[in-house]
What we know:
Largest sheet: 7 strands, parallel
Low-confidence stretches: none
Number of strands: 12
Helix content: 40-55%
Structural class: alpha/beta
Order of helices and strands: EHEEEHEHEEHEEHEEHEHHHH
Number of helices: 10
Mean pLDDT: 90
Amino acid sequence: MRLFLTGATGFVGAHVARLAAAQGAELRLLARASSNTSRLPKGAEVVVGDLRAPEEFAKALEGCDGLIHVAADYRLWAPDAAEMYKTNVEGTRRLLLLARQAGVRRVVYTSSVATMGFKTDGTVVDEESPVSEADMIGHYKRSKWMAEQVALEAARAGQEVMVLNPTTPIGSLDAKPTPTGRIVVDFLNRKFPAYVDTGLNLVDVDEVARMHLVALERGRVGERYILGGENLTLKQILDRLAEITGLKSPTMKAPHALAMAFAFFDEMVTGRLRGKEPRATVEAVKMGKKKMFASPAKAERELGLRVGSVEGALRAACGWFVANGYAPAPPKAVG
């Protein structure tokens, strides 16, 4: 199989690329000119391009059997939100059109569990839970919601497109790191004095990668699949990290109002005045009021998703961050 993959220099995409290469796929990997390509699988063809101008690499789609579109502008703060929509929404729309014109048979679009209809009471949601664009908090969620609608519209028009909605992947190779990876890095660096009352569904990134290749083969056209693992409160996640590392888990719970005040200050000083990405954002705090608990039962039934403990993935994340200099070694060995 000849596979075109976007996002291979990112967290989830790197795992998809490595697994696809191990399974013998012929890979064409999209990367921006500024991206670090040193971790890409050997033998893969690197296509230099930008999702804001997919026409420039359109010929690379020719002869491909499948497209896995993982790449996205994943930030909870951006000085110019318009760039996020250009990449996530319009880039996806044009890429799907070009794939159709090139005769690419099957397409997997990687969306996000952020497009689901979460509640503040911790209700476990699934693909059928009512949701609308009005439920999307912030530009990242809204742009992913809009891009997902583009993918579903393409499926309704006859293109073989299916949508995957990973929850919160965790594991190795999180080089940026993602906002979730930052939780682990901050914990390892003893920068987690308190926690807020929120919750996430964590999933092993290796299983997320496997599901991309399975979905390409047998996912149902026009369907969404939540790829999830364990529903955990933030406190439970920090307690798991404490058990793994030997570091102390915070015991003080910070009210959302205090977290919001800190995020507002951090955005103003770090973001607006210094031009750097803040550690805390107003959007993230608003999102945190909803426990993002989700059910992956549909993916279990139809794709064979393996749902289990994420302790191994948390340990892998800790080990990778320590080994690559993001944090000092904790009291317990994690590598």
